[in-house]
Design a protein that fits this description.
about 230 residues, mainly beta
Length: about 230
Amino acid sequence: MRKISILILFCLNTIICSAQKKIFEKTVDDNLFTTEKGPNKKTFSHIYFQYSMFPVDYEGAEINMLKSASYGMGYRYKYKLTHIYSLGVDANLLFYNFNLKQDSQKQLPNTVQHKKEILETTNFSLELYQRIIIGRAGNMLGLYFDVGGYVSSVLAPTHIYKDEIFDSEYNSEKRIIRQKGLTYFEPFVYGVRTRLGYNKLGVVAEYRLSNLLKEKFEYPKLPDWSVGIQLSVF
């Protein structure tokens, strides 16, 4: 929750600052019409915020879908080759949170059931993508479709579980355990991403082609699909 709160506050502050732009100028800058930098110009870059959820899970590693998510921010650069086609690079930092169901089918990371249990990672990824502009856009991003491939470094995988321990009929204690340095997570993963956007808003879908957990441990798969929204700030 602390990570989400910090991200939301930073997002709101960035949006407010970016909104404080001059609408009119006393003098017209000729570079406004000749510059090669802009949403639909030769080059353009901006930051964005993302929130996604997982629409699938797998037997033995079922999740509480409404409590599981990935969220974070990124930086995107675009280089326009033709009026409808561009190439680009994307770098982002995303936090993945898998809230595990506690039932008799549970196998990950063991069969022990807890009051609450979470697996989370921090992923830094680099993506190469291509973009198709749909229709006319003027000097806006317009309607666009992206498809690209990414490689992520899986940082700080953590296993968190919470239990309520009863010492007697009248006394109980809540314990939260955090286990770090988990060896059953892969250090790198890769996959594909697609985006359909219009100006500052977009829908993003991600599919991880590699397994997040090492095969030698024979664990069931964690969700490999995610679908969410992005808000660009510029």
